[in-house]
Amino acid sequence: MPKPNFVLEAITLLNENRTGSPYRSADQTILIDNFVETTRKSLAKFLNIKKSENLAFTFNATHGLNIIIKSVLKYGGHVVLSCFEHNAVLRPIHYMMHNGYDVNFSIINPEANGVFSSDAITSAIRPYTKLIVWNHASNVTGQISPIDLIVRIAKDKKNFNTPRLFSNGRHVEYRRM
């Protein structure tokens, strides 16, 4: 997918003027450290995240999802998924299931009217549920899930994740997550 010109310009500027790896000891990397931390703080403010250090950068969304899924389910557990999940979610879960991890999942489908039932979501959560992965806004179908409802249902769970790849334009209160 083509990137907007301002993104290409920023990446070019960074590559031309800020070489090196962040958080290393060389002088040049101090500039990169500052750039990374300024970006992290700006994004945290934009996304209404209280602590910018809770915002992690990954290579891409698939990489980020793999880190979350494989870390949280390292010792097994149950996952609740919407029926709209991307292969970036399904593949690591299937991999773990078929490679010795005690992992299983429940998939929630919407009602005939396209709305997800809070009862269906609630009843899918097991005592050993460790993760709820729910696509907030599908770039394929345009389906926008009731993320506030899902957050309320899952508020007692420590490991709640929802990819925001296609939904950052909508206001979501990230602090509640």
Q: What does the secondary structure layout of this molecule look like, with pairings?
A:
Layout: H1 5-17, H2 27-47, H3 61-72, E1 77-82, H4 87-97, E2 103-108, H5 118-124, E3 129-133, H6 147-154, E4 160-161
Parallel strand pairs: 1-2, 1-3, 3-4
Helix pairs in contact: 3-4
The structural domain count equals 2
Task: Tell me the series of helices and strands, N- to C-terminal.
Answer: HHHEHEHEHE
Total helical segments? 6
Radius of gyration computed on alpha carbons: 19 Å
- The structure class reads alpha/beta
Fraction in beta strands: 5-15%
Query: Level of helix content?
Result: 40-55%
- Major beta-sheet overview: 4 strands, parallel
> For this structure, what is the CATH homologous superfamily of the largest domain?
Type I PLP-dependent aspartate aminotransferase-like (Major domain)
Reported by name, the CATH topology of the largest domain is: Aspartate Aminotransferase, domain 2
Strand order of the largest sheet: 2-1-3-4
Concise synopsis of the structure shown:
The chain is an alpha/beta fold. The protein is built from 6 helices and 4 strands, in the order αααβαβαβαβ. The chain is 41% helix and 11% strand.
Tell me about this structure:
There is one protein chain. With 177 residues, this protein is α/β, with parallel strands linked by helices. The chain has two domains: 5-54, no CATH class; 61-176, Type I PLP-dependent aspartate aminotransferase-like (Major domain) (Aspartate Aminotransferase, domain 2, 3-Layer(aba) Sandwich), CATH 3.40.640. It has six helices and four strands, in the order αααβαβαβαβ. A four-stranded parallel sheet has the order 2-1-3-4, with helices on both faces. Helix 4 (87-97) links the parallel strand 1 (77-82) and strand 2. It is globular and about 50 Å long. Mean pLDDT is 79; it is low at 162-166 and 173-177.
